[in-house]
Amino acid sequence: MKNKSVLLYLVVLLTGTASTAWSDRPWYQDYQEALDRLKKGDARGAIPLLEKTLQTGPDPGPQRPTYGMHFIDFFPYLHLARAYLLMGQCAQAQEMLERSARRDRLPPDLQATELRPLRQQIQAQCALPVKTPAPPAARPAESPLAEKEAPASQPSASSPTQPKSPATDAPPVGPSVPPIRRSVPAAVLQTAWRAYLRGDYDGADRVLREARQQYELDDTAYFILGCSRAARYFREGGTDGRLLEEARRYLRQARQLPPELQSRLALFISPKILALYRESRRAGGGE
What is the pLDDT of residues 124-154, one digit of tens each? Predict the structure, then answer.
């Protein structure tokens, strides 16, 4: 019993010491660990560390003192925006980006190389442009008759009575018209797009395949499907010819992407997949 008490005391002591050391360590160590976690894709672990540095660190800005004669750039809001984007939390990412523009005191060169590209990534992932269907054409107004129809002439007594033709009110029998399917909603495209950017290629594929049962897929949807298949093909070593052929087929169907999306492809599509997209478009006569 005494040994158990001693062991419990040591555990509590060591845990408390570690916790105190963690809470008392300098802000720049938390900041550096947060950046390391972000590089590894661990946004969930980086966010609390970055938020902690906002409480324990200096005002954000370039070349903040750490210890001795050492200085580091301290831009917590910029990295919080990047972390929330990795988590797929668009509202928080946009909010942190705006705070970075106001409070991080980014130099002009970093505004061009870091802030603006990140803003474009957030816009691409969180507000995917989709084509708006054109409104139906208005029906021309019917012009009133210039003259009233003349009353039907009464048959004369001497004219023979014409036999009445059988009724033809029934509509002609023909092939049934298929129901018109609505275009895939923007919310579905955004869900698939976010899954793709997170690396969940199967999830992006599943969202659009399920949507195809109810909606008509557009060029953007086929582009996401093709990119998802292509990403799986390259991720699995480039040996599955079936995935490659499916990727090419879907990419050929992406005939006309919205200009806003077309101009930003290089920001979030890998060079290999972009090359495959252009090759597929040329093979399909799209370029």
Answer: 888 654 444 555 555 555 544 444 444 554 5
Residue among 287, 281, 285 at smallest CA distance from 254 = 281
Cα separation, 192 vs 244, in Å, equals: 20
Bridge partners of 74, per DSSP, are: 61
Instruction: Choose which CATH entry (3.40.50.720, 2.40.30.10, 1.10.238.10, 1.25.40.10) describes domain 2-126.
Output: 1.25.40.10
Q: Which residue has the tokens 């950046």?
A: 35
**120-147 burial, b for 16+ CB within 10 Å, e for fewer?**
ebbbbbbebbbeeeeeeeeeeeeeeeee
